[in-house]
Each structure stands twice: as C-alpha cells, then as structure tokens.
Design brief:
alpha/beta, eight-stranded parallel β-sheet, four-stranded antiparallel β-sheet, 16 helices, binds 6-O-alpha-D-glucopyranosyl-D-fructose, binds calcium ion
Length: 552
C-alpha cells in the first residue's frame, strides 16, 4: 500500500488521519417503517444530513442480529443484520449509498464476547466435552473475585455446574482468544464484512481479549476499576498483531480500538505504527474527568480537562496518531456535560464544543445529535431508563439500601448512558418515527431538534470544511498556551507554513484575554463573550500585537 508521503513535522499521511467520523447508533437514528426502531433504511433516508456536514466516515454501532440485552453489543449472529434494522440487502444498499456519497463506512466489531444466544455458546455450554467447550472460558470452580463492568461477579454458574467468565453481562460470555479456532472464526467474520467493502472497524473493548489464566484476584487499589486489569492480558499484543497480519494488512482500512482500561503509557503499544496492531484507539481520560475513583460523577475543572490533552500529546510521538472524542453512545451529552445546556447558552456552547472537536489534534469523532445540540434529560423514575447498567446500579445502590433515590438520580442524571441513546428529534414534532418510539424522546424535543439546531449544524459543516482545507488543523503541532486559565482554553496548531490560534471561552462570562488584532477566520470581534469560540489564522511575520508564530 503506498503511503509514504510524510508531513514536514514527521507524520505519515493517511486518509484516516485526515478524516472526520460521525457515529450512528442505528436504533435511535431514524425509523423508516413506523415500528418505532431506527433502521438501516432510515440511515439511507437521512444520509444527506450526514453528508451535508462534510464528514468522511460513518461509524455504525452494531447492526447485527442480537437479543439486545445490551442494545446490540451482545451479538447472536455476526453475519446477519438484526431483523429490527432490516435485511442484508438494506445493508448493501446503505453501503452503496455511503460510497456513492463519497464517504466510507466502518462497523462495530464486538468480539471480546458474544451473546449467550450465539451458536458457539449454545454448543459450548451444551456439555463439558463439546468440541466448542473451549471457545469460552470455563472453570469447575469460581476462580477469582473478578467483577463485571456492569456490576456483580464476572463468573456465572451454568447448568453443568461449571462457571463461565463474562466481563460484562451474564448474557455476554467472553470468548477464549487463546483458542486458535476462535481467532480464525473472528478473522473470518472480519473478512466477510471487509469483502463487502466496509472500510474498517471500531473495536469494542478490544484490549480485554486476552485473559490471564492464572486468574489473580483483583488488587485492592483496582477493585473499583477492574478494567485496568482486564486490559492487560498477557497476549493482547500477539493477537492484535496476528489480526493485523492475517486480515487488516490485506485491506486499505482504518481501525479504532475502544481502549477502555488502557493507560496513556501503554497506548503506544497498541497504536505505534511500527508494531502493526491498531491504527488508533479511544483514550478515556477526557471523558473520565468528571468521574471519581468509584466511577461516580464529580465536579471537574477546565485546567484538569486541558491537561489531559497536553499529557496525551507528550506521550505520543509521530508514530502514533490520536483520536478526539467527547461523546458516544456510552456518554452523556456534551453540551450538558462540558457546555451549558440552559436555553441562553445551549447553542453557543454546543458550537464551542464543535470548534474544540474539529480543531484538536487527532481524528475527530462526532456522535449523532451533537450537531443539533442535544442535551441530557432529567430522569425521575427508574422505569424511564433502558440501560441494563443503570438498572443494575439501581439494584446495587438503591434496592440494597446503600444509596438514597435522590443520590441515585443525582448521579445517573450526570452519567447515564441513556442520555445519548434517546431517539433523534428530526422536527419540532419529534419526527423520529410515525409509531411508538422504542425509547422515549428527550422531553425537550420541541425546542431541541434538527430544525432548531440548524445554526449548530452549519457551524459543524464550516469547521469540517476548514479542517479539510488546512493541514495545520490536522497534522499541526499542538500547544496549550494558557493551561492554568480557569475559563479559557487557548491553543495553537502550527504546521510548516501555517498556524492557527483557537480561543474558547468555557464560561458564560465575558473574559479579558490577549487576542490577536486580525479578524478571526471563525468567530466575532471585540472582547471574548460568554461561550464564544474563535479561530485566528496566525501570520508568519509577527503581527503588531505580537500574536505571530514567533510569540511564545
Ligand atoms: O459505558 C461505560 C462507561 O461510560 C463503560 O463502562 C463501557 O461499558 C465500556 O466503555 C465498554 O463499552 C463497550 O462495551 C460494552 C457496551 O455496553 C458499550 O456500549 C460499548 O461501547 C460491552 O460490549
Ligand atoms: Ca424501523
């Protein structure tokens, strides 16, 4: 594969470094047939909306056959489209429509675990001497105290009397990657989709695939965050390298691993291009800035948040390429979390977060609905939730008597994954479905929807076009010029012949900040107003106010 063009600051140019990605959670995107569930035809019908943003790649969350214990992250048949989403013909039509629109498609590869209804597990659990027994991780006793990420023990006793491992729900048994047949089975699934023409994968909890079969107990200090143990199995790099050699290197595709539990220090082991494992990973530090050691919500500060990106930039050299994301289907809405979702500031702060996302170093991932400024909702009843993780937390925290209902809702209203999973309000009437939606729309849909969000959408489109024109915004070096400032996030992106200064006011108060006296490329003039974002082009020659590149 020819990819030898190198930028003046040392990066090998690759299409996926220059791409902007848009994530579709199909269940909640658009329902084309009135059954209340978003589907593949619905994505085709709304493709102009995605294309109009100017994005290059769509990441489709699982569209496979699944009993939906975890909304599709529990796959029953990897070669079959979920009936609620449509047919394989619909998938082929969607892929063709995406390509015709000049975009690419990556799909979700969820292969740390399958559904317990997958044929492999049905056979595996059928008897101790079934040929597929070893496709999963079985033990005749409970080997350790590992816990499920969703709460409770990670081992469940099956009818045979043996225990099987599930790092997530009991309906998501973990595959045994030490079995070569399992790995080959996964590689076959990958080739099945790659041969259809998909352009790569987002890989679900991929660092968890290798298990330490000595099964040490969880160290005390990681008891609340077992992911840092699960992500460090002895053979994870061997298996990813093998997957790269046997599958990925045969295609011109991109991969992005969900690196839940991977430290910054360990990141290059997964993505240093000389190691030939993954292209990119999602780092969790930025979206964990408002989480305490127990995973519960805690207040965050702008300097802490900014420091994440400087640390990341310093930890990765030119052989590694970062991603940038603030949200996905597992996270609350960005405008409620990092912006200000009050009626006065919602639009402006949503636009500021767009400016941040599209001017940072690293391939940007936009989550559906952020381009219209969708917000969290206020949940007041456990029955309003869908997510099994929240329902488990209700059992563990409230039913057990450990927490008051008030404390539970206060936390879930900040952290729940359901904030991101409410259907997209396309119009002031809702416009997601003509039937009954599988999950209630955010009650604010009459005010917050694709129509009222037009200014935010247009801002995204302008920024994406700017990023595509300006290599400095893609490959440019990153420098935070005011790391301690409590309200302003200001950074430079400098490249060979061009440089930009981005200034973001993360507050509703006007701020006095040393601004260049040139006209910004994007943004207003005069003092920086509440939640205002500006992008200045810096001139080669130092400008009269000293905002040129030479200024430090
Ligand atoms: O959602 C989380 C916290 O915001 C995480 O605990 C999450 O479970 C973790 O990031 C792994 O997520 C992925 O795998 C899960 C699935 O439920 C998530 O939707 C998926 O993104 C199991 O497949
Ligand atoms: Ca439907």
């Amino acid at each position: 594969m020819p990819h030898t063009e190198i930028t003046p600051n040392g990066y090998i140019r690759r299409w996926w470094k220059e791409a902007v990605v848009y994530q579709v959670y199909p269940r909640s995107f658009y329902d084309s047939n009135g059954d209340g569930i978003g589907d593949l035809r619905g994505i085709i019908e709304k493709l102009d909306h995605i294309k109009g943003l100017g994005v290059d790649v769509i990441w489709l969350s699982p569209h496979f056959d699944s009993p939906n214990a975890d909304n599709g992250y529990d796959i029953r048949d990897y070669r079959k489209v979920g009936a609620e989403f449509g047919t394989m013909q619909d998938f082929d039509d969607l892929l063709a429509a995406i390509k015709a629109a000049g975009m690419r498609l990556i799909i979700d590869l969820v292969v740390n675990h399958t559904s317990d209804e997958h044929q492999w597990f049905i056979e595996s659990r059928s008897s101790r001497d079934n040929p597929k027994r070893d496709y999963y991780i079985w033990s005749d006793h409970k080997p350790n105290d590992w816990t499920s990420i969703f709460g409770g023990p990670a081992w469940t006793k099956d009818e045979s009397g043996d225990w099987y491992l599930h790092l997530f729900d009991p309906k998501q048994p973990d595959l045994n990657w030490d079995n070569r047949e399992v790995r080959e089975g996964v590689y076959d699934i990958m080739c099945f989709w790659l041969d259809k023409g998909v352009d790569g994968f987002r890989m679900d909890v991929i660092p968890f695939i290798s298990k330490d079969k000595t099964f040490p107990n969880l160290p005390d200090k990681l008891r609340a965050k077992p992911q840092y143990i699960y992500a460090n199995g002895p053979k994870v790099h061997d298996y990813l390298h093998e997957m790269n050699r046997e599958v990925l290197s045969q295609y011109d595709v991109m991969t992005v691993g969900e690196a839940f539990g991977v430290t910054l220090e360990d990141t290059p082991k997964l993505i240093d291009e000389r190691r030939q494992e993954l292209d990119m990973i999602f780092q969790f530090a930025a979206v964990e800035v408002d989480r305490g050691p127990d995973g519960r919500w805690k207040p965050w500060t702008l300097p802490e948040f900014k420091a994440v990106f400087t640390r990341q930039d310093q930890a990765l050299d030119t052989h590694c390429w970062p991603t940038f994301f603030l949200s996905n289907h597992d996270n609350p809405r960005i405008v409620s979390r990092f912006g200000d979702d009050s009626p006065q500031w919602r639009e402006k702060s949503a636009m500021l977060l767009a400016t941040l996302t599209l001017t940072m170093k690293g391939t940007p991932f936009i989550y559906q609905g952020d381009e219209m400024g969708m917000t969290n909702r206020n949940f007041t009843d456990i029955n309003q939730f869908n997510d099994l993780w929240t329902k488990n937390a209700w059992q563990e925290e409230v039913v057990s008597g450990k927490w008051s209902e008030k404390a539970f809702f206060a936390n879930q209203n900040k952290v729940s994954r359901d904030h991101a999973r409410m259907p997209i309000p396309w119009t002031t009437e809702g416009g997601f479905t003509t039937g009954t939606p599988w999950f209630a729309l955010n009650p604010n849909f009459a005010e917050v929807n694709a129509e009222s969000g037009r200014a935010i959408y247009d801002h995204y489109a302008r920024l994406i076009a700017l990023r595509h024109r300006e290599p400095a915004l893609v490959y440019g070096d990153y420098k935070d010029i005011a790391p301690d400032h409590p309200q302003v996030f200001a950074y430079r992106r400098t490249f060979d012949t061009s440089a930009f200064l981005i200034i973001l006011n993360f507050s509703s108060q006007p701020v006095i900040f040393d601004l260049p006296d040139s006209e910004p490329v994007i943004g207003g003039s005069g003092p920086l107003q509440g939640w205002e974002s500006r992008i200045y082009r810096l001139q080669d020659a130092p400008s009269p106010c000293g905002a040129g590149r030479g200024r430090e």
